[in-house]
């Protein structure tokens, strides 16, 4: 899983080191990188494994091929996605398009979200985190444990 948050600086060549725990998780899934695309909701980047983007693609493909919304999703996610591979030192290079969307200049914050993660400009995430915490508190009753089967812990 992708957990916790890690801040790293972008070097002069536009490369940033991906947290070792994130690289390790992706490696355990058989990947030497990840897919990233601009977030719909925030000035941030969504990031996931190849199999997760394939699952998203399959969900888009399940929509009626003649409906506009299928094209809207495919254009907004798949055509904007970039496959980012780790170099020998565990770094990736973020394109200008991705950097501009997330308003990233010098540092990036990798934010673990379980099966996916996001990449933020650190100050923008600090502001978002305050709002997210308030909304999570307001909606805490919606988060329920799954019922376990008999005999499970």
Description:
- This protein is 36% helix and 23% strand.
- It has five helices and eight strands.
- The protein is an alpha+beta fold.
- Strands 1-7-8-4-3-5 form a six-stranded antiparallel β-sheet. The protein has a two-stranded antiparallel ribbon with strand order 2-6.
- The model has no long low-confidence stretch (mean pLDDT 94).
- 20% of the residues are buried.
- The protein is globular.
- A hairpin with a 4-residue loop joins strand 7 and strand 8 (117-120).
- It has one domain (5-140): Chemotaxis protein chec (3-Layer(aba) Sandwich), CATH 3.40.1550.
Can I get a quick summary?
This protein is of the alpha+beta class and 153 residues long. It has five helices and eight strands, in the order ββαββααββαββα.
- The CATH topology is given as Chemotaxis protein chec
Strand order in space, largest sheet: 1-7-8-4-3-5
- State the fourth-level CATH superfamily: Transcriptional regulator MraZ domain
Low-confidence stretches: none
Number of helices: 5
Major sheet characteristics: 6 strands, antiparallel
Domain tally? 1
State the main characteristics.
153 residues, alpha+beta, Chemotaxis protein chec, 6-stranded antiparallel β-sheet, 8 strands, globular
Q: Helix and strand layout, with pairings?
A:
Elements: E1 5-9, E2 15-17, H1 20-28, E3 33-38, E4 45-48, H2 50-61, H3 68-78, E5 82-85, E6 91-93, H4 96-101, E7 107-112, E8 117-120, H5 122-138
Antiparallel strand pairs: 1-7, 2-6, 3-4, 3-5, 4-8, 7-8
Helix pairs in contact: 2-3
């Amino acid at each position: 899983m992708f957990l916790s948050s890690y801040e790293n600086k972008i070097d002069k060549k536009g490369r940033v080191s991906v947290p070792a725990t994130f690289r390790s998780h992706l490696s355990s899934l058989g990947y030497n990188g990840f897919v990233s695309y601009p977030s719909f909701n925030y000035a941030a980047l969504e990031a996931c494994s190849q199999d997760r983007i394939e699952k998203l693609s399959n969900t888009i493909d399940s929509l009626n091929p003649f409906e506009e919304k299928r094209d809207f999703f495919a254009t907004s996610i798949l055509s904007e996605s970039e496959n980012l591979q780790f170099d020998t030192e565990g770094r990736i290079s973020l394109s200008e398009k991705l950097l501009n969307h997330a308003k990233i200049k010098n540092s990036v914050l990798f934010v673990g979200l379980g099966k996916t993660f996001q990449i933020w400009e650190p100050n923008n995430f600090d502001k978002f985190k305050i709002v997210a915490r308030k909304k999570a508190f307001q909606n805490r009753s919606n988060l329920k444990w799954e019922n376990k089967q008999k005999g499970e812990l």
